């Protein structure tokens, strides 16, 4: 019992120390960078506001959401706090400015997070199509994967092509160097990541797992995650040299050996430091590698941070 208490004391001390590291970094180095003062007048159409004729796909800093379809997962006040990573519906996330969605499914096509389940993926598709019908130049990366420990939904590739076919951007490495306007009226890059079923084939309507990569680590320590993100991002090629999307997640994860298991208070240890991360990318000369930047509980300021750097890139200022 005594050793367990001692371990918890040390854990809490480590968390306090790491939170302080990020706070001091922000106070000492700031969170400004080219484009950081930009705030889109209409986040629902922020890509359109940057002029689709001038912005290339590989210039975009894509604001994404982690575990996107968990706003209604589990039971309210019971299991939901342990798995909910977003409070907004998929549609409202897109309206807020999110442009990358992370969807986990199980065999019956319901969205899940571990053992907890929520609504059918049909709801996700409906929300995406509603948003697309109300906008004209916004491009979405829709990543759908079979959750760990679950089986692939049968014929899911055909389901996605049937539901989204008119919007799907064909898998093609040339897409990365094209301008937004050159892809229209197609609007969705759909990455399907099955566990056992065959991967989408080159040239098809769906993109395979090799086109969206990341280096996720399982930790609730904010400075540890911040520096891991920096390290792995620095190991990537610049976006102009890559033929895949690379994601950085500005999140931390509750740990079973810690008293605080709810997602919100844990991920809030790092969530306020998104702009600091971008600023540090500038300082460490790796901002040319930043591409997809994801968060829990997305808000307008996170979107503005990404849109501002996108604007600066398009104008040759970053």
Automatic annotation (TrEMBL):
It holds the Pfam family PI-PLC-X. SUPFAM superfamilies: PLC-like phosphodiesterases. It comes from the Eukaryota. Residues 51-187 form the Phosphatidylinositol-specific phospholipase C X domain. InterPro entries: PI-PLC_domain, PLC-like_Pdiesterase_TIM-brl, PLipase_C_PInositol-sp_X_dom. This is PLC-like phosphodiesterases superfamily protein.
């Amino acid at each position: 019992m005594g050793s367990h208490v001692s371990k918890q004391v040390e854990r809490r001390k480590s968390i306090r120390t790491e939170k302080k590291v990020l706070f001091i970094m922000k106070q000492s180095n700031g969170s400004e960078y080219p484009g950081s003062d930009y705030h889109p007048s209409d986040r629902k159409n922020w890509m359109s506001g940057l002029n689709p004729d001038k912005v290339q796909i590989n210039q975009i800093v894509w604001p994404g959401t982690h575990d996107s379809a968990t706003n209604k997962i589990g039971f309210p006040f019971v299991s939901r706090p342990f798995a909910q990573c977003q409070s907004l519906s998929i549609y409202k996330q897109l309206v807020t400015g999110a442009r990358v969605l992370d969807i986990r499914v199980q065999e019956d096509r319901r969205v899940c997070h571990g053992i907890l389940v929520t609504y059918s993926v049909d709801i996700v598709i409906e929300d995406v199509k509603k948003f697309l019908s109300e906008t004209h130049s916004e491009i979405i990366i829709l990543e759908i994967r079979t959750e760990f420990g679950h089986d692939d939904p049968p014929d899911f590739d055909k389901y996605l092509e049937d539901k989204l076919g008119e919007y799907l951007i064909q898998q093609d490495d040339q897409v990365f160097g094209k301008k937004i306007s050159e892809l229209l009226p197609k609007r969705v890059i759909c990455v399907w990541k099955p566990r056992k079923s065959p991967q989408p084939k080159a040239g098809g309507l769906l993109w395979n797992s090799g086109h969206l990569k990341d280096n996720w680590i399982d930790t609730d320590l904010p400075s540890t995650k911040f520096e891991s993100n920096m390290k792995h991002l620095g190991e990537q090629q610049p976006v102009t040299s890559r033929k895949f999307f690379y994601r950085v997640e500005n999140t931390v994860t509750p740990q079973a050996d810690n008293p605080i298991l709810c997602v919100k208070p844990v991920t809030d240890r790092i969530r306020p430091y998104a702009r600091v991360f971008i600023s540090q990318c500038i300082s460490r000369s790796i901002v040319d590698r930043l591409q997809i930047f994801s968060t829990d509980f997305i808000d307008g300021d996170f979107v503005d941070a990404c849109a501002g750097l996108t604007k600066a890139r398009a104008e040759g200022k970053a």
